[in-house]
Amino acid sequence: MDAQSRGRADEIDPADQWVLNPRTGNYELRLEQSAPQAPSQRRAPGTTPPRRTPGSPASPAGPAVPGPRRGDAPPGGRRGGRPRRGGGGGGRKKILVVTGGTLAFLLVGGSIAGYLYYDHLNGNLNVTDVGDAGTSGGFKKDQPINILVIGTDKRSGAGNEGYGDAGSVGHADTTILFHVAKDRSNATALSIPRDLITDVPTCPTKQPDGSTKDIPGERGARFNTSLGQAGRDPGCTMRTVKELTGIQVDHFMMADFNAVKNLSTAVGGVPVCVAKDVNDKDSKLKLTAGEHRLQGEQALAFVRTRHAFGQRSDLDRIKTQQQFLGSMMREMKSKETLTSPQKFLSLAEAATKSLSVDSGIGSIAKLTDLAGELKSIDLKNITFTTLPVIDNPAEPVGSKATVVVKQAQAEPLLQMIRGDVSLTEVEKKEQAAKDAAASDAKAKLDALMQGPRAAAKDVRVEVYNGGGPAGSASGTLTWLQNTKGVLKSTNLGNAPAKVAATQLEYAPNQADQARALADMMGLPATALKMGTADAEPKTAMKLTLGADFKGAGVSLTAPQQAPDGVQRVEADKSVCAK
């Protein structure tokens, strides 16, 4: 259904049509004169639309929907089997109940996954218990959200047997870490190359009988083997990403090849642009130069191709997938999709049947809450980027098959994500509102850093490892004593509990010592935790190294702009694949 068929094309904002029904607690799409019209019935401009009778269809053909719950209005505007009464537009108003009230984002990989959930589709979801790899109890509304979106190369599903390795156990073929800012004004989608050499940690994995089995870790492994290999589940990929980036992953979403085929079809095709003719026999992608609208097998071929664009590498495939995802997002947020009940129904079925999630968001209600957190982010404030890498120097020239992290670019980029710094400029008025709301808190943090600094010889500190790499506490102690002259420092080993961010606890009368240590280590003001009572003489401060700690001498203060040379593109930009 388009806006013109309702006679108000220039007045409709799709977002305004979603209203909360206090009786059901759900958001509902309220549409005037929303009965579909066959092509032969479409009226010409300026003519009067035909009046719908009470017995005419209430919704277009689409996936079957279960009967209404008690208290819900039956389809077609009828209650108790009797026609609705009343004049004006009331008799023509229908309600399509959709939890969430917004289209959420679709994330692409060797497949794509998405949100847009109906409360009757819980049974479609595949839920995995990943233990403490993620965040239990959903998410906190006043904290950033980190979602790991995984596209697996498992060849399950009809028609997928002919793609690549038909016996694949399902590796992490494409992985995107989707970071949603604390204030929900922006988001960063960080792609992690599948051929990256990294360390995969030991992973506790739930077995079918309910027991937990530790899957041994592996040093110097390909990143994609963090899933599937040796029975590793998505929780293992989450743990690997945390060790690699220092970012705590809260939840995961995973989908296979069928997701991209079904979702691209459900949305009516995804617009793409190619700068040259393409005929890739491996992915079976064949396109002429120019613009195309892809769905089904063609859409899957587009996101799978590794030989059609750029240098014909996995890194170029990542760029192609990001372009496809941005286009999918724009298509999903268009008025044509937002106001089409048929597309809603098709997308709901396709998304939930293709989706696996962790138990922290393993229900339609929880996913709806999550979608609500994302709905206000403007596409221009969503940035796609890729973890900076270089060819693996351990491999011979001419036989480069894997990559390693390019630390000089990667660490500042990861610091920005850990520090919740946007990679794109948020609208000035949005930023002004954000700054005004945070001004009091910022002033307090700035005040902590004002004042005198103690001499290095007078700084007393106990160092704990609360989530940093193995040996972080001892390495920091050596660095403090030998490089900075902090001789009154001690290593107390592992902290009682792990922390996501490094923190320094101190008393009011130790503020000069805290400032001095913060300067040496590059600690942000948010890492300083001042107590309420003064400390006794010769009492040491407590420094706990968190998951964000990367090594002695590596600053933890997030830069305010991405380093030069980092690949990135905003979701609202249309890019032509080259």
Q: What's the tally of helices?
A: 11
- What is the typical, i.e. mean, pLDDT? 76
First and last CA, distance: 35 Å
Give the strand tally.
28
Quaternary structure: single chain
- What radius of gyration results from the CA coordinates? 27 Å
Unreliable spans are 1-20, 29-118
> What's the main sheet like?
8 strands, mixed
Describe the protein.
The protein has 578 residues and is α+β, with helices and mostly antiparallel strands. Helices cover 23% and strands 21% of the residues. The strands form nine sheets. An eight-stranded mixed sheet has the order 6-19-14-7-8-9-20-28, with helices on both faces. Strands 24-23-27-25-26 form a five-stranded mixed sheet, covered by helices on one side. The N terminus is likely disordered.
Task: From the structure above, extract its key features.
elongated, 11 helices, 578 residues, 5-stranded mixed beta sheet
Would you summarize the structure shown here?
The chain is α+β, with helices and mostly antiparallel strands and 578 residues long.
